Structure formats: structure tokens, C-alpha cells
Amino acid sequence: MPPFSLFFLVLISHATITFSRHPLLRISEATKWSSTRRQLGNDACRTGNPIDDCWRCDPDWETNRKVLADCAIGFGRNAVGGRDGNLYVVTNSDNDDPVNPIPGTLRYGVIQEEPLWIIFDQDMVINLKEELIMNSHKTIDGRGHNIQIADGPCITIQNVSNIIIHNIYIHGCVPGGNAIVRDSTKHYGLRGNSDGDGISIFAARDVWIDHCTLANCHDGLIDAVFGSTSITISNNYMFNHNEVMLMGHSDDFLDDKNMQVTIAFNFFGENLVQRMPRCRHGYFHIVNNIYTGWEKYAIGGSADPTINSQGNVFMALDNSDTKEVTWHESLTGFEEWKSWNWRSDGDMMLNGAFFTPSGQKSSASYIKASSMVARPASYLTNMSPQAGALNCQKGYQC
């Protein structure tokens, strides 16, 4: 994993709160944190992150994997993945057949009709030949190993529900398509060109993406479009990318007015340009994330989305042209976007960063864009962050 610690040292230089230093980490390791809920384990284990405190203090996490399904927060909190099914173990990383996948491969597991909790028997780098098209009620759980999906088409969550993707390093994703791909045990068909997203969420609901590391994809790292909703994107580490997250299909696609997405406890790292996220229509709760710079903007949108930014840490780059967090895209300018409900509530602005609010100031305007209780931004600076794919070892607290 490239060194985010350098950016944290820059963050320290602009803040009055002391951070602890960390050595450079490997790909399977990550960044530490702080939020609020306290559950398992002793005081030394608890971080205050309500998701992590739900399961990470358990030294038997490996035999209690499905507890994770009860730990989601935000709009995607009802995503149970494969909790109610059997474990499926991926043993084969080399033989990806998009039409007739063989047992033991990741693709064979994700297309099954029944719920499955998918795990891995060893470290793997999986190079997919075409999009990995998932069926409903599936969890991809990479804990305990260094699992990478890389240098090929990546993950597509389309017209399904109840998906959890956890502890995977996704990078180097490229377009696929114009090929036959199986999406269930009962159906395969010709796929058009894919965009080259890390994770593409299309007309799906009840989706939770947690503790993944994402970088260097052809299009978006995580895109959610075409009426998708009930989504939580949490504890992820993202770096080295241009258009990070697109939320909403197009300005004219009105079904996205019902979209609700929580973006929480993520670490937006080095060399990110824009779309963290870029929103259309819908309701977006952007809460308790750390932003270490952006080359164009951090949060933007069009078509009157409601954006509720709470308890985030925004540190601008030294470039005087990139201090603004927000970007309102409209043909008619201020006269159009002045009514869009965008607020910054308790965010920490560092190195000249600033947020341009708009619309109504009342809390009632943001009810549909509120999914959890935000912690003060200062909580994020009390402990060094821990986002991205974790280095979990069996028999030890993760």
C-alpha cells in the first residue's frame, strides 16, 4: 500500500491535535480511527468506530464471521449478504471462466442462487476475464488473507440485493464486455462494454462496502447508479484515482431521487482528484470521513441532491485553486443551485479548506439524508485512522 502516513504528517502540521506516527504499511494492512459505539473486548481494543467495535475485538472472529452482517450502520444497515447461508471457500484463483465457472472459483460462488458467505483459503490475486456479476445474498469476505481483484474487469452488483464486500484490495480495473457472461446458475448472456469501475452498483439495493482498499481503476472506484439505494460505503481507503465515486445515473434519470447513501469512516488518501462523491438527485450522508486533499473538488453534484456533511476532516492541498470542498454543477449557476440543500455541520476545515453551503439551514431539510449519529470531527484526530483492507490474523483480535 502506498504511504498515506506522509499525508497524515502533513495533516498534523495543520492541526492542533497530536497524532501518533505509524510506519508504512503493506497492501493488506490499513489506516486507524475513532467514532463512538463500544461493545466487545477491553478498553485497549475499542476504537469508538461503531462498525469495528461490533466485531474486531473478538479473537474468534474467524469462527464468528457472520457477526459482521449485524454490524452495518447507515442506509445500508439491512444488507445481510450471505448471513443466512453456508460458507463457500474459494480455493482456485487462476481459472476464471465467465460462462462455465468451476467450483472453487470466486465466480462460481457469486452466481449461486442460495445465500453464501464467501471466504478464501489463502492469499490470492484474482485476474478476472470479464465482470464478476453477483447474485443476491452474497458476502465476499477477505479477512485472514491478502485478497486482491486486479488488472481486469472487476465487480458488478446489478439488479440484486443484500451484498456485502469486505476486506478486498481492488485495483487496476479495466473495461470488459462484448462477451458472454453468466450472472446466475440459470442464465448467461451477451454483456455490452463495462466502464472499468472497481465496484459498479446498478439498480441494486441493500449493499454494504466495508474495509476495502481501492485505487487506479479506469472509471470510478465505486459507482452507484440507475435507481440503486440503501447503500453504506464505510472504512475504505481510496487513493491514486481521478473520478472516485459517482452517485446517480444522469441528471434526467429521476428514479435516483429515491437514492440514499451513507459514506462513513473512509480515508480519502493521496492523489485523488474529484468525486468523493459526485451526487445526482437523492440523499447523501457524508459523515466522519478524513480527506487528505483533492485536486479539483471533494464533494460535488448536480440535479438538486441533498448533501448532509457532518463531522468530516477536510484538509486542502497547498494549491490555492483547490481549497473549496464543494462543486455545484449547473447550467445556470447560482440561481439554480442556491436552493439545493447542502450543509456542513461540525466539519473540521484545515489548510484553508472551505465548504460552500446552499439551500435551507433547518435540520428538517436533512432528515432523509441522516442515517446515523455523527461524532465530532475531533474524534477522528484523537487516534490514527484505520481504513482499508485489514491484516487480520486467525486467533487474534483483528
Automatic annotation (TrEMBL):
Pathway: Glycan metabolism; pectin degradation; 2-dehydro-3-deoxy-D-gluconate from pectin: step 2/5
Cofactor: Ca(2+)
Gene3D superfamilies per UniProt: Single-stranded right-handed beta-helix, Pectin lyase-like
Domain Pectate lyase: 123-320
Family annotation (InterPro entries): AmbAllergen (IPR018082), Pec_lyase (IPR002022), Pectin_lyas_fold (IPR012334), Pectin_lyase_fold/virulence (IPR011050), PEL (IPR045032)
Catalytic activity: Eliminative cleavage of (1->4)-alpha-D-galacturonan to give oligosaccharides with 4-deoxy-alpha-D-galact-4-enuronosyl groups at their non-reducing ends
Claim: Calcium is one of the keywords in the record: yes
Keywords tagged on the record: Calcium, Cell wall, Lyase, Metal-binding, Secreted, Signal
Compartment(s) of residence: Secreted, Cell wall
Signal found in the keyword field: yes
Details of cofactor binding: Binds 1 Ca(2+) ion. Required for its activity.
Signal peptide stretch: 1-20
One of the record's GO molecular function terms: metal ion binding
Listed EC numbers: 4.2.2.2
A GO BP annotation: pectin catabolic process
PANTHER family linked to this entry: PECTATE LYASE 18-RELATED, PECTATE LYASE 21-RELATED
Family designation: Belongs to the polysaccharide lyase 1 family.
Name this protein carries in UniProt: Pectate lyase
Organism of this sequence: Populus trichocarpa (Western balsam poplar)
